[in-house]
Amino acid sequence: MAREDTDAPAPYRPVSLLFTLGAPFLIIAAMALWFLLDPFGLRVRYDPDESWQQYPSTSYPAKGMKITQVDRTRADTFDPADAAVTDGALEISFAVLRGFPLTGPGSIVERDPTSIVIPESILALDGREIIVQGYMMPIDFEDNSTNEFILSPMLAENYYEQSPQLNDWIEVKMESGKRTPYLQDALCRVRGTIKVAVVYEDGVAVGLYQMTATQVESIFGQ
């Protein structure tokens, strides 16, 4: 009578081994899919069309906000005469400033100046004193202060979501070379005189909005 080989692998062992090796990959794939779908809005993003009053009073007011498709038609219905006025300054949102399309890929516009069409409602802001809210990205930085910075409706790390256009930021310089504290990752309120004109370097448009600021403050008092 032949002796039974008790050391022989059971028929199901190859299947069990395959599942054991493949399970981590399945878990990683499921986690990646969950992150991409983001059903509960957990990723840190900022919707430029949301009013600042809806932000939580935390160190990072952009938490929980989702980026929506930018409405590039808002400037068509905007009238400066209808804007709110605070101490003589117009309250203007980035939703309006970026509310019209520009040609060209990303922030680089075609060399042909006639390709850039700025709505009359936006041109009417040229030389006006305005108040606008956004996030600081310093150009000049010294002793935790700056006298020149980019004001943007989004935190810098959120630009992986979409490429900016020329009307998606303002180049800000402080009045008379004054310095202001650098408000890192804090939604701030900037007051000053805006200039609306295309800036060219080597025949390429590199900017649209410039501002001479008189006041910068954090909305949440940070």
Task: Give the topology.
Elements: H1 13-37, E1 85-86, E2 89-91, H2 94-97, H3 120-123, E3 129-138, E4 145-146, E5 148-152, E6 170-174, E7 180-181, E8 188-201, E9 204-218
Parallel strand pairs: 2-3, 6-9
Antiparallel strand pairs: 1-2, 3-5, 3-8, 4-7, 5-6, 8-9
Query: What's the total count of β strands?
Result: 9
What is the chains' assembly state?
single chain
Distance N terminus to C terminus? 87 Å
Estimate the global geometry from the Cα principal axes: globular
Order of SSEs, N→C?
HEEHHEEEEEEE
The amount of helix comes to 10-25%
Strand order of the largest sheet: 3-5-6-9-8
Uncertain spans: 40-67, 104-108
- How would a textbook summarize the main sheet? 5 strands, mixed, barrel
Mean pLDDT, as a whole number?
Answer: 76
Residue fraction in strands = 25-35%
| Count of DSSP H/I helices | 3
**Rg calc:** 26 Å
Q: Quickly give the structural class.
A: alpha+beta
